Amino acid sequence: MIIKSAEFVISNSDYRKCPQDGKPEYAFIGRSNVGKSSLINMLTNRKGLAMTSSTPGKTMLINHFLINDEWYLVDLPGYGYARRGKEGRDKLRKIIEDYVLEREAMTNLFVLIDSRHEPQKIDLEFMEWLGENGVPFAIVFTKADKLGSGRLQLNIDAYKEKLLETWEELPPVFVTSSEKGQGREELLSYIEQINSA
Ligand code: GTP
Ligand code: MG
Question: Which stretches make up the EngB-type G domain (predicted)?
Answer without folding.
Answer: 22-197
